Amino acid sequence: MTMSDHTSEETKVLFFNYHEFSETYYADMNNPALPQEHDKSEALIITHFPNVYTPQNTPLFKETRIVRVPRRFEESVRYPNFSELLPGLEPAAIVGDDNASTGKSPSQHTFIARGVYDDGQVFGTTSTSPLSLYFTPEQFRDIVHEINILLEEEYQVFSWWNITDIIFTIVTLGMWIWFSDILQTVRASPPSMHRRKLDLHIEQLNESPLLASQRVQVMHPSRSGYLSLDFQIPKPVA
Amino acid sequence: MHMYFEEHSPRQGPVGSLRQRLRLLLLWLIAIDGDEDLLLKYKNYIPMSSMTNYIFFFGGRVRTLRGRRQLSLGVLFIIVVPAVLFSIFETHPIWLHNQGYKSLVVLFYYFWCLTLAMFLMAATSDPGCLPRNLHVPQVSRNFQVPQEYYNIVNLPSIRQDIPIQMKYCRTCRIWRPPRASHCSTCGCCVIVHDHHCVWINNCVGQRNYRFFITFLSSAVMTCILLIANCGTHLHRTDNGSHGTPVSVLLIIWGGLSICYPATLLSYHIAMTGTQQTTREYLVQIGSKNPVMHRIRSNAQNVFDTRQFFKNMFLLMAQVRGPKLMNPRESHPSGDWRFMKLP
């Protein structure tokens, strides 16, 4: 199944990670210096991307990659929220026959490098991303779910903070905005201000043993404009 | 979390000669097209001024667009002139009138200040510009955008029958969520983009929509109060309009300038009531000119709650959220957001 099939499917639209793309001109694992054309059925699926959070000339850029978790709209369209499915487990994910022969269930899918592309990076032939090397689907769901809950709170229109914000803006002829902007960036401000809550949560998450010991980091969604939830992972190796 | 800032914080050497200090001050005052040689190059507003069409003032605090007819100055003129005339010719006699019209004067000044403040905030603040190059697909092949990214992607939404459509912006290199769109006048993608307003010379988006709506409402109130104040003055003056020609002028001024904001406000009430942004509404009617078109709800709109006031509140009071591209922050040299990719 190719990606264009997902988009043209009219009867029931299925969710998939729109960041992925396929590539047939790549080098095989045993001959990484010699890229060649492959059959469509052997196309690599690009599931991890350059780390755009650090300049290209830094060691961090060379050592890390980004897995992008897409936005989803099945739960709500009112606030930014991200897919809680470990990349590769989406309903319309590209599943190869990697695991079919070993008889594994989809939940046991792990990343298997099949080819070299994009400046010496290794990729598999399924939607399963290298994130599967670090988290079980349940751990991943819990991580994203917590973030989604905080985002829902932050983007609640009918919340005391938002209503106060509007009233104070009008009463103070707009001067409140400066004050509130300062309040939200000051570390000592109460965490009940929802944006601070998310900041603290992401900080704690990145310091937690599950992520820190595996050198995985979650990028703050505001840094990615709430467009995707980005996980920084060590560069995958074969 | 912000390790990319800590590791590569800008190394700012001692500021050199007086001449260089003056150049820095000038750049801080007005950044039109980023000058990469200067010490301020690590401030976001410097590269932002060359990547977008914005000009930044006062170290990125205030922005407007360059190379456009500055219609916003005309609007400023229409707002300021009647207040000056009113203060000179009207305030004193109305305030001193023994019938007690002081509250009318106070209300006029309050709404006038609100109009001016909201106009300035809508016109000079961030509408919700999205950062660039967040979704660069690859570094090989000169950062080529793959074929899949040219498709309009349909994703399931809260309503089975209406899919959400996602598009990849090839200029900004990001997957745009629904309601975000690229404004070619401003040169950036704007989140919950309502429209580009030539009168405020800025986009109206998620982060300044409430200022824009408050501006329209307070402008209408200011005009009503201007007419009420001057009408009162006229009525209480013994020799009628001959004694107070400025009152007559201001009544005409108020009567003329109420038309546009009042029309626009009613459009926005009807559009937000059906949970549509101006952009979505214009796409729905298939015309750039909304005049003589009825505003009706769109059956294909997943955002619609079918309750007029709830719809209206959800859009008008939408959460502003943080600045997604803060012109006043610093960045390391080689930050992807400011790279011009082929």
From TrEMBL, chain A:
Annotated keywords: Endoplasmic reticulum, Membrane, Transferase, Transmembrane, Transmembrane helix
Keyword Transmembrane among UniProt keywords: yes
InterPro entries named in the record: Golgin_A_7/ERF4, Ras_palmitoyltransferase
Species annotation: Maudiozyma barnettii
The protein's assembly and partners: Interacts with ERF2.
Membrane spanning stretches: 158-179
Protein name (record): Ras modification protein ERF4
Compartments (UniProt record): Endoplasmic reticulum membrane
Family of this protein: Belongs to the ERF4 family.
Superkingdom, natural source: Eukaryota
GO molecular function, one term: transferase activity
Predominant location category: endoplasmic reticulum
One GO process term, biological-process aspect: protein targeting to membrane
One GO CC annotation: endoplasmic reticulum palmitoyltransferase complex
Topology class, membrane: Peripheral membrane protein
Ranges where the Golgin subfamily A member 7/ERF4 domain occurs: 66-230
From TrEMBL, chain B:
The organism's place on the tree of life at top rank: Eukaryota
Molecular-function GO term, any one: protein-cysteine S-palmitoyltransferase activity
Topology in membrane: Multi-pass membrane protein
Residues covered by the Palmitoyltransferase DHHC domain: 165-283
GO cellular component terms given for this protein: endoplasmic reticulum membrane; Golgi apparatus
Claim: Membrane is one of the keywords in the record: yes
Example GO biological process: protein targeting to membrane
UniProt keyword terms in alphabetical order: Acyltransferase, Lipoprotein, Membrane, Palmitate, Transferase, Transmembrane, Transmembrane helix
Localization (cell): Endoplasmic reticulum membrane
Main localisation: endoplasmic reticulum
Transmembrane segments: 71-89, 101-123, 209-228, 248-270
Alphabetized InterPro entries for the sequence: Palmitoyltrfase_DHHC, PFA4/ZDH16/20/ERF2-like
EC number: 2.3.1.225
PROSITE patterns per record: DHHC
Reaction(s) the record says it catalyses: L-cysteinyl-[protein] + hexadecanoyl-CoA = S-hexadecanoyl-L-cysteinyl-[protein] + CoA
UniProt domain comment: The DHHC domain is required for palmitoyltransferase activity.
Membership in a protein family: Belongs to the DHHC palmitoyltransferase family. ERF2/ZDHHC9 subfamily.
UniProt name for this protein: Palmitoyltransferase
